[in-house]
Amino acid sequence: MNTTRFQSWRLPGQLLTLVTALLGGFLFQWAGLPIPWLLGPMIFVLIGSLLFKNKYAWSNKTRNGGMVLVGYTIGLSMTGTALKSMSHQLPSMAAMTILLLLMCMGFAFIISKLSGIDFITLLMGSIPGGLTQVIMLAEETKGADITIVTFYQVIRLMMIIILVPLFIFSPLFGYQHSASGQAEAAQAASEAVSYAPGITWQLLVFLAVAAVFGLLANRIKFPTAFLLGPAIATAVFQAIWQSGPTLPTELVNAAQLVIGANVGLMLKPGALQNKIKVFGCALLSGVLLIVGAFVFALILKWTESLSLATSLLSMAPGGMDQMSIMAHEINAELSVVAGYQLFRTFFIFLAVPPLFRLFYKYYSGRKAPTEQT
Questions:
Q1: Which tens digit of pLDDT belongs to each residue from 160-213?
Q2: Whole-angstrom distance, CA of residue 144 vs CA of residue 122
Q3: Which of 209, 230, 233, 245 could cross-link 71 (Cys pair, CB 3.0–4.6 Å)?
Q4: 159 — phi, psi (to 5°)?
Q5: Structure confidence at residue 192 (pLDDT)
Q6: What tens digit of pLDDT does each residue of 231-280 get?
Q7: What is the maximal distance between C-alpha atoms in the chain?
């Protein structure tokens, strides 16, 4: 029976992957680490597959099911209220997002020239946000090094989550940790989970629509079809019918787990050449990205008359949930922070894949004659 690199019908292999992923998720959640049900399974399955070669397996259909759930949650955020709130600063949001992406492209080009790493791989690794979608896009892109892309994206996310809070609570900004603010944020999060409606017939209808559109999008070769198809379908369906129900926490965690396990199996650290150079370049890329975001935050502060903290949290390239909670804690303008972060998320999920494919065709067309000469 034919198998793929990540798909096998051997039940023991998939069961071993599931148990390892669950262990990673629980331990990362217990340790209080960010996005535990994505990073935990990813790292634990990676380690397990390195220790026990050819023992792990995972189904692409399982991964696609997780992508449908993630796409559904993205579509839920595309409400009329959210879009209306963003419209007031839409020109600024668009300009800042485009400038940020152009800056990332410039950094990727410079680091590519300095390190000799493929430019397209570094470009996908430098896209600010959309960790899951960028990894799936890299999987679909011929010649892209999925290990380097994932490595860069994870390093960027971890640096943003760690360094931005250090900046906010440094003497430069003058903010202090607020126990009451943290308690209110935690209470709001727990209430959101407590009042989640669970699995209802409305949720089943929405998920069925999302799954069907994911399959249709895949049939017509839509980029990252099982993510964008459900996202667009959910947004349209709730606009013409009713607001979509929130996914139960268990389903959200399950979606992250199946995607994280899949990525863990795709990672091949042994295939990395010049590991020290790659790690150093990833750190350099992350530092440059944070410095660039800080410069854009200064521009945003002056042009929109915002506080520096609000501007920095709005421009921080990643960790939307963490930036919003921090904005709540220090009494920054939460609606502004959420608006900028949400706009960038929409832009990356909807506009970047087709734009990247056009750029890839153009870049490949120019590169081919150069390599022949």
A1: 766 777 777 777 666 655 444 444 444 444 443 344 556 788 889 999 999 999
A2: 9
A3: 230
A4: -65, -40
A5: 39
A6: 889 988 988 888 888 888 889 889 889 988 887 887 676 666 777 888 88
A7: 66
Supply the pLDDT for residue 298. 92
Going from N- to C-terminal start, the domains of the chain cover 11-178+187-365
Number of other residues whose CB lies within 10 A of the CB of residue 1: 5
43 Cβ contact partners less than 8 Å away, ≥ 6 residues apart = 24, 28, 264
Q: How far apart are CA 28 and CA 41, in angstroms?
A: 9
User: Which amino acid appears at position 276 of this protein?
Assistant: I
Least Cα distance to 40 among 249, 247, 263 occurs for 263
C-alpha 337/C-alpha 345 separation (Å) is 12
Residue 228 half-sphere exposure toward CB, CA atoms < 13 A: 23
List, as one string, the DSSP characters of 206-255.
HHHHHHHHHHHHHHTT-TTHHHHHHHHHHHHHHHHS-PPPPPPHHHHHHH
Terminal C-alpha separation, the chain: 43
List of the chain residues with pLDDT < 50:
1-9, 178-195
Lookup: tokens for 244: 């979509």
